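Q: Hi! First time doing this. I have a protein sequence and I read that you can turn it into a structure. Is that right? Here it is:
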Amino acid sequence: MKVNTDQKLIEELLTRGVENIYPKREFLEAKLKSGEPLTLYTGYDPTGPTLHIGHAITMRKLRQFQDLGHKVIMLIGDFTGMIGDPTDKTSARQQLTHKQVLQNCQNYRKQASKILNFSGKNKVEVKFNSKWLAKMNFASILELTSHFTVQRMMERDMFQERLKEAKPIYVHEFMYPVMQAYDSVAMNVDGEVGGNDQTFNMLAGRDLMKDLKNKEKFVLTTKLLVDATGKKMGKSEGNMISLVDSPEEMFGKVMSWTDEMIVKGFELCTSVPMVEINSINSDLQNGVNPRDLKIHLAGEVVKTFLGSKEAEQAKEHFIATFSKKQTPEEMPEIKPSAYDIVTVLLESKICLSRTDARRQIEQGGVKVNEEKITAFDFVIKPGNVVQKGSRFFVRVK
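A: Yes, that's right. Below is the predicted 3D structure, encoded as structure tokens:
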């Protein structure tokens, strides 16, 4: 496939949603303009069964490279996923078995196909890093680690925090960036794309490529979708958008984002032109109702990942249900193993755990037939509608 060197498309790739480019923007720009086909990748550790919007941000950047004719690899970290990336973690991750990791990623390709193209002449290639990492012997691991220093590893913020709090730092956590670095060498890539929080790991790979292959690897980091405090979306906040969410769920979660996330949400998660996004930013600064802009954003996010028809239906559902304070006519149904409110919340997956369910009840976030519930042992009757917050409903059978 011939490489496209269109200047406007290259400029969009180099700027939209981009935090940093190493060694520098001019290096990558020259490569893109030369017409030379590049090979690049992003790694995805299967620590859970669904890809989410954070993954989608890097995939959208990969798709820009793919559309220009460059070779894209989606690397499944089935080996690194067993260890767990320590980035931003104040304690060691719980290690997973290879069986758990493979089970988690069994639908990744299908989910990623909402963004990446896995067919045609320039299809995305899927690779697994256990192919090379699982085969390394102790001698080769020792040789590999000789290219890294403890001082360099200890520069990482989360390790410094653990030292201050007297929390343990395990040796296998030092190995994570070493393994990710070797991924680049094993695949002999020209570049790597990842979130800005992955800068340390990706630059480790860049250094290793120089040492072992005398090759200059580019690293492109994308902006993170965070609130004003720098906090990323997560399961505990209930606003993590999964690529398997329904249109209504996706729309509702975007509506729960803080106002500070609106402009960045447009930039990172939609195809709205940057000229229009700059205008939206001006509107926001000039006092336009953020709710109206957020409805526009939610519609564009659903449109991007699920389609135009689904976006319009989700918008209508949101307005009818939440703007007009109506209970939706259609909702999931559940026949629970027991009819106490905590069991219903847990088995309907409205809450992540019994502790989460009790916390939601204590905070007044749970209703049955529009009446607030305060007792953990409240008994639900068949036909009752259980509601958490303004977005989650389930009818009990």
